[in-house]
């Protein structure tokens, strides 16, 4: 799984990183986003809703995003 | 009518009548109304008239009103005054203001989730306790269907947070305490109104000696000015419908011109003068700065604009995007042309920011 390390970055940078990474993969492929920004979880879930992708929290600082 | 060109923040200048009244009140209302002297007697009389007017304007009884010099303390007094022990369950909405959440956490807190429309997502509750009920949310303007919610908590006492609007018709038919804020009717800051309907249950939760239910440390001149602002506010309710139309105009313009935008709540079930927009891939603080340069001052719930760098708990609880957030409060006197200009500034600023990313 492709890994995107956005640790140390603040919103909206992790979401922008995530969107750029997901744009480069095929439908059904997942990426792993690493982020320690407290806004990432709520914003990732909102981003997934708005862009029709899926996102789940793996741990406090890692999230799996799958392109629909 | 208050002229507030460019100001779309929560705060607004004093109503001109309230400003004039404030200066006069400092001349006439300087004495302590509790002491024995002719000036104190005059101050006492002015205070009583003020209480009567507030009671009338807010559909309350004058004997259930207490005045606070620190409105935020009112949240604690309103809720904790109804709690019978440290183990009392305090039910609160996930989108409640932080003072309410902090108070709940000093007892046995129970957070109530909301859906993406900001409505409480709950079932019937048979547990006793205190329900901290917000009448309308200050960040999104979303109004709570108070009577429907209260029916779900038949064994709870009800502490209402009415600090976002002086519209007493939004209170539920059953409630035990309520807190209002002078700032919500363009009165001076530093004046809160605590209404204690259930005086048999409510007890002063602060350390105290004597029979006073709350600290009497408010400014009488500010109270007198606040009363004038409230009377002016209530005398021009038709303005509220116009502000609602302006909000609809702005929401439609933004929604039809900007992609990937979250608008919190439906206008039909919100206060007519508050709108919250979140723009994907935009930086909230930079957006505020850009709009300020263009002459428009707004608020934001984005993490980068808060003191503790935490995202808005209100937007997060609803599942609304927290970054790139701006909050527009439309004050009385704002024109349709100003809303058009604001809309243009927002659209251009968002496009400019996204192009840079």
UniProtKB/TrEMBL annotation, chain A:
<dbReference type="InterPro" id="IPR001455">
    <property type="entry name" value="TusA-like"/>
</dbReference>
<dbReference type="InterPro" id="IPR036868">
    <property type="entry name" value="TusA-like_sf"/>
</dbReference>
<protein>
    <submittedName>
        <fullName>Unannotated protein</fullName>
    </submittedName>
</protein>
<feature type="domain" description="UPF0033">
    <location>
        <begin position="4"/>
        <end position="28"/>
    </location>
</feature>
<dbReference type="Pfam" id="PF01206">
    <property type="entry name" value="TusA"/>
</dbReference>
From TrEMBL, chain B:
<dbReference type="InterPro" id="IPR015422">
    <property type="entry name" value="PyrdxlP-dep_Trfase_small"/>
</dbReference>
<dbReference type="InterPro" id="IPR015421">
    <property type="entry name" value="PyrdxlP-dep_Trfase_major"/>
</dbReference>
<dbReference type="InterPro" id="IPR015424">
    <property type="entry name" value="PyrdxlP-dep_Trfase"/>
</dbReference>
<protein>
    <submittedName>
        <fullName>Unannotated protein</fullName>
    </submittedName>
</protein>
């Amino acid at each position: 799984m492709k890994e995107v390390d956005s640790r140390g970055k603040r919103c909206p940078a992790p979401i922008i990183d995530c969107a750029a990474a997901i744009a480069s993969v095929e439908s059904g492929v997942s990426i792993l986003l690493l982020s320690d920004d407290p806004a990432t979880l709520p914003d990732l879930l909102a981003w997934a809703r708005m862009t029709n992708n899926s996102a789940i929290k793996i741990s406090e600082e890692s999230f799996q995003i799958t392109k629909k | 009518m208050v002229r507030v060109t460019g100001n779309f923040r929560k705060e607004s200048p004093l109503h001109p009548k309230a400003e004039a009244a404030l200066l006069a009140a400092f001349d006439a209302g300087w004495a302590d109304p509790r002491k024995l002297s002719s000036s104190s007697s005059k101050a006492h009389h002015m205070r009583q008239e003020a209480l009567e007017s507030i009671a009338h304007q807010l559909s309350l009884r004058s004997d259930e009103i207490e005045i606070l010099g620190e409105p935020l303390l009112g949240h604690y007094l309103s809720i904790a005054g109804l709690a019978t022990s440290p183990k009392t369950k305090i039910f609160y909405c996930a989108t409640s203001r932080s003072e309410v959440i902090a108070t709940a956490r000093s007892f046995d807190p129970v957070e109530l989730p909301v859906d993406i429309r900001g409505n409480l997502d709950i079932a019937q509750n048979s547990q006793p306790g205190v329900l901290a009920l917000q009448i309308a949310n200050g960040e999104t303007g979303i109004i709570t269907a108070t009577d429907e919610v209260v029916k779900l908590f038949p064994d709870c006492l009800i502490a209402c947070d009415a600090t976002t609007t002086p519209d007493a018709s939004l209170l539920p038919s059953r409630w035990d305490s309520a807190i209002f804020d002078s700032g919500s009717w363009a009165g001076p800051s530093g004046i809160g109104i605590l209404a204690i309907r259930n005086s048999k249950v409510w007890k002063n939760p602060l350390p105290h000696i004597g029979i006073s239910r709350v600290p009497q440390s408010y400014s009488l001149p500010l109270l007198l000015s606040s009363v004038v602002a409230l009377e002016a506010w209530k005398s021009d309710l038709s303005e509220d419908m116009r502000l609602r139309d302006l909000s609809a105009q702005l929401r439609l313009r933004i929604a039809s011109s900007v992609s990937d935008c979250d608008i919190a709540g439906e206008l039909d079930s919100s206060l007519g003068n508050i709108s919250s927009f979140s723009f994907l891939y935009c930086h909230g603080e930079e957006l505020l700065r850009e709009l300020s340069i263009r002459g428009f001052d707004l608020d934001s719930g984005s993490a980068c604009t808060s003191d503790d760098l935490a995202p808005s708990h209100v937007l997060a609880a609803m599942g609304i995007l927290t970054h790139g957030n701006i909050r527009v409060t439309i004050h009385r006197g704002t024109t349709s042309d100003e809303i058009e200009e604001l809309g243009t500034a927002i659209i251009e600023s968002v496009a400019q920011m996204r192009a840079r990313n």
